[in-house]
UniProtKB/TrEMBL annotation, chains A, B:
SUPFAM superfamilies: Class II aaRS ABD-related, Class II aaRS and biotin synthetases. It catalyses: tRNA(Pro) + L-proline + ATP = L-prolyl-tRNA(Pro) + AMP + diphosphate. Residues 38-339 form the Aminoacyl-transfer RNA synthetases class-II family profile domain. Homodimer. InterPro entries: aa-tRNA-synt_IIb, aa-tRNA-synth_II, aa-tRNA-synth_II/BPL/LPL, Anticodon-bd, Anticodon-bd_dom_sf, Pro-tRNA-ligase_IIa, Pro-tRNA-synth_IIa_bac-type, Pro-tRNA_synthetase. HAMAP family: Pro_tRNA_synth_type2. Keywords: Aminoacyl-tRNA synthetase, ATP-binding, Cytoplasm, Ligase, Nucleotide-binding, Protein biosynthesis. This is Proline--tRNA ligase.
Length: 436, 436
């Protein structure tokens, strides 16, 4: 994208309403604009991050055997009366009447709808297991929307729902999602820690939150250093095989939110292993048995001809929230520091003397080679402004092209995360950016 | 996808509520399920088509110079009061009150919101031109939702909005979209005909509908055979250059809906050139000048320091509607006939004797080679059922593998559109499917 023609409205000043780093930086870097309280429009740079985050989520859901569907945003109130949650949900549910005065709602989650859909389809135990997910906009009418996309009212969530023939099979589905989540967050450059959690209003008896560490985190967490040292990408499990040993590697170490913290177990850890830090929740998985299948009347015929009520779980990732969470975990005074996998653009090409034929030519060559993954700062602006905005927007690489270097065909490559600078030929610079 | 584990609920019987071919076939092929009147969930096969259609739309918008953003579904009523459309829109607008009794609505279109967003950004004539588009779910509370996704209440639309410094520049933006639309529909295997249209409630003075021909079309259209003979993909225009000659090639021939039909001009055509047929609207473009920029208070500073009110246009494609429209244009008695570019899967692998080691092995080899673009019918079912379902679901190729052929390493490849059958080696079959 050429900055002279881009829709990338960066701000010099920090908007007064932004209290946390990600909110401030997303506004300043022109990623989002608020259109109503807790409701945001995603501008080109922000949308590219959102799409990359969503695509990583999708790939890891598919790898774990889940199948993508897309349920609508507007649901019938009657569905929620069947599960008994229509009244329970309270004012966070955006209730709507259509032109015929039918009671509808903007879905905050989809347990009821997916169970109803699946009921239409599944007749036999042979139709199990299935895990269906979708990535769709949800609405929760927060009393105090704040922190930008971290606690918005309209937000993008990936929610998956598993259907199994018995609790053991359901446990396998749960483990598939547990491991898929670890891979998902790791691919985004995040260290996410699974922590036992209360199941809350979704119900059920097994639940983990996935929490990333960030100084600005919303809650206190307690975690063993041994857990932090594990790498989810070190090996890819066979998702059809026995996953218990893989999950046990993670659950054997101490990790707890303040809510679930056990002071005695914590004290038993060697002091050098105790890490107490702030965390941000980015995912949550639940096994809740037959809570929805039973209330919504979902049964299938078992191998013995008798009816079975499928065991279910649900698995959520806050996709739009993740964009903010990544920034909370990765920024400095100058701006955002994007992990390569989710950066809106891999590189900014900074033309320090736009209009100079040599600089222009070298920049155009780089831009042509990098294609859609580059933003080209071709504006007639001061170098200082270009540096500051590239730092603010957090592109992993800055290809800096001034008259002296350009005369020798050299590109100065700056790595945003480390400040490291390389003096490279055009070809080497392109190769280095593409390799990341 | 292995059919034994897929969520692809095909139906033998035609649901009573489905009046038109696309609605019948989308339900029978397990692409969608209605969750409320005019509101649909997209199941895996349907979603894959929706995503491919959306991606083609996206690529052609990008090619023409538009930039993708994503505006929220929920809007403030106040925005619509500024343009004066809040009352005008009538009962089709889904009006909502949030927990604080603020008046909101589920956006049926985005002229107001995008103008307001752009106002925040654009200060100078140098910030023009810009064309911003998004692909987002909309809601129109149709009095009589019907015809499946062709006239649903919640639907996916691509809407683009251009901002220009004067009418000539706006005309250029209009032409960019005109030509992008022709390419978009042609890539989906559709013959779309641009027709002069009334501007209706959006206002303005220049508008074209894009209409595809289908026997089951909703309206009568009149078009010159010379127009039908043009190929939008024959050459790629330079979207930054002069587009008038490209557009003129299309507008010089007669084409009109019943509404705009001119009997005298029609009669002047040679009889062999007159094509009268049924059509379905799949896109609509508008140039409406300063209607929204003026009412919403959008001005930028001109080169002479004086304020300019930007000239605008808007450009819509019904993305979810297109899925139905493609089926209306391409099906037969047995089911859907997908154009290659938008098929949910390129090929179905039909194992005629699941459990036979030779058949299984050959099928697995094909499946491994074709990857996510193949659906593998590995079920223990009769060949007749497998043929019928593959025809119904309309995959462009069927790789038919029975014991006799498998013993010789041969694959029978059937082309869904023509019925043509090829007897090929495994390698040639894979290459043929991938080439399409």
């Amino acid at each position: 994208m050429r900055l002279s023609r881009a829709f990338l409205p960066t701000l010099k000043e920090t908007p007064a309403e932004a209290q946390i780093a990600s909110h401030r930086l997303m506004l300043r870097a022109g990623m989002v604009r608020q259109t109503s309280a807790g409701i945001y429009a995603w501008l080109p740079a922000g949308l590219r991050v959102l799409q990359k985050v969503g695509q990583i989520v999708r790939e890891e859901q598919d790898r774990a055997g889940a199948q993508e569907i897309l349920m609508p945003t507007i649901q019938n109130a009657d569905l929620w009366r069947q599960s008994g949650r229509y009244e329970d949900y309270g004012e966070e549910m955006l209730r709507i009447k259509d032109r015929n005065q039918r009671e509808m709602l903007f879905g905050p989650t989809n347990e009821e709808m997916v169970t109803d859909l699946f009921k239409d389809y599944a007749k036999s135990y042979r139709d199990l297991p299935r895990n269906l997910y979708h990535i769709q906009w949800k609405f929760r009418d927060e009393r105090r929307p704040r922190f930008g996309v971290m606690r918005g009212r309209e937000f993008l969530m990936k929610d998956a729902y598993s259907f199994d023939v018995n609790p053991e099979a359901a446990q396998h589905s749960y483990r598939q999602m547990f491991l898929a989540y670890l891979r998902t967050f790791a691919r985004m450059g995040l260290k996410a820690i699974p922590m036992r959690a209360d199941t809350g209003p979704i119900g059920g008896n097994l639940s983990h939150e996935f929490i990333i560490l960030a100084e600005t985190g919303e809650s206190q967490v307690f975690v063993s250093q041994d857990l932090l040292d594990l790498d989810p990408l070190a090996d890819t499990p066979d998702f059809a095989g026995d996953l218990a040993p893989h999950v046990d590697r993670w659950t054997q170490h101490y990790a707890a939110t303040e809510e679930m913290h056990d002071e005695a177990a914590w004290s038993a850890l060697a002091e050098g292993k105790r890490v107490s830090a702030r965390g941000i929740e980015v995912g949550h998985i639940f096994y809740f048995g037959t809570k929805y299948s039973a209330s919504m009347g979902l049964t299938v015929q078992g191998a013995d001809g008798k009816p079975i009520t499928p065991e279910m779980g649900s698995y959520g990732i806050g996709v739009s929230r993740l964009v903010g969470a990544i920034i909370e975990a990765s920024h400095d005074e100058a701006g955002i520091i994007w992990p390569d996998a989710v950066a809106p653009f891999a590189a900014a090409i900074l033309n320090l003397k736009a209009g100079d034929a040599t600089c222009d030519a070298l920049c155009e060559q780089l831009y042509a080679a990098l294609g859609a993954e580059a933003v080209y700062d071709d504006r007639d602006a001061r170098p200082g402004q270009k540096f500051a905005e590239a730092d603010l927007c957090g592109y992993p690489w800055q290809a800096i092209i001034g008259p002296r270097g350009a005369a020798n065909g050299r590109v100065e490559l700056k790595r945003r995360a480390t400040g490291e600078r390389l003096d490279l030929s055009r070809e080497d610079a392109i190769a280095r950016i593409k390799r990341a």
